[in-house]
Amino acid sequence: INEAYDILKDEKKRSAYDQLGHQTFKNSGGGNYQQHHGFTGGIDPNDIFENIFGDFMGARRSSKTAFSKKAGANLKYDISLTLEEAFYGVTKIISFKTALTCDACAGKGSLDNNSTSSCPTCRGSGVTRSQQGFFFFENTCQTCRGAGHVIKNPCTKCYGEGRYINTRNLEVKIPAGVKEGS
């Protein structure tokens, strides 16, 4: 593992490994490749792991756009109360942002019925593939953002997303005798 890390963290060593293979880095006189060839420096190993494991950490493409139509998380909202409000109870109005289905296009992202086409960048797969040395990387397509298709004539209200961000006000009744943190 240490040998692999030493090779991968140094761009020159990695290039030599790609061209000449594993035998280049074996030595019979002790020491390591860096001692015999004098290479130092390198790339950030976090970049390699991000490229390899990025899909496991939430970068996996989805079949929807950035505003994927899924249930939202529970809302947690901190409210300051006076002693009197906590004792007797109070009604407060809170504001938060939420994604709403676009009423102009009914959530389709387009005003036309047939305005989507296969993404020219990823050819409909939603991912782009690249190779760096002996590693192959798969990333979410930046053109279609993983959807696999692009909208030719996007809605002017939601810009092709099918949803838009809106501020919502909600009336919250806080009961009498509420305790801190509840």
UniProtKB/TrEMBL annotation:
The keyword Acetylation does not apply. CDD domains: DnaJ_zf. PANTHER family: DNAJ HOMOLOG 1, MITOCHONDRIAL-RELATED. SUPFAM superfamilies: Chaperone J-domain, DnaJ/Hsp40 cysteine-rich domain, HSP40/DnaJ peptide-binding domain. The lineage of its organism: Bacteria, Pseudomonadati, Pseudomonadota, Alphaproteobacteria, Rickettsiales. One of its GO terms (biological process) is DNA replication. GO terms for cellular component: cytoplasm. A zinc finger (CR-type) spans 89-167. Keywords: Chaperone, DNA replication, Metal-binding, Repeat, Stress response, Zinc, Zinc-finger. It comes from the Bacteria. The keyword Zinc-finger applies. GO terms for molecular function: heat shock protein binding; unfolded protein binding; zinc ion binding. Residues 89-167 form the CR-type domain. This is Chaperone protein DnaJ.
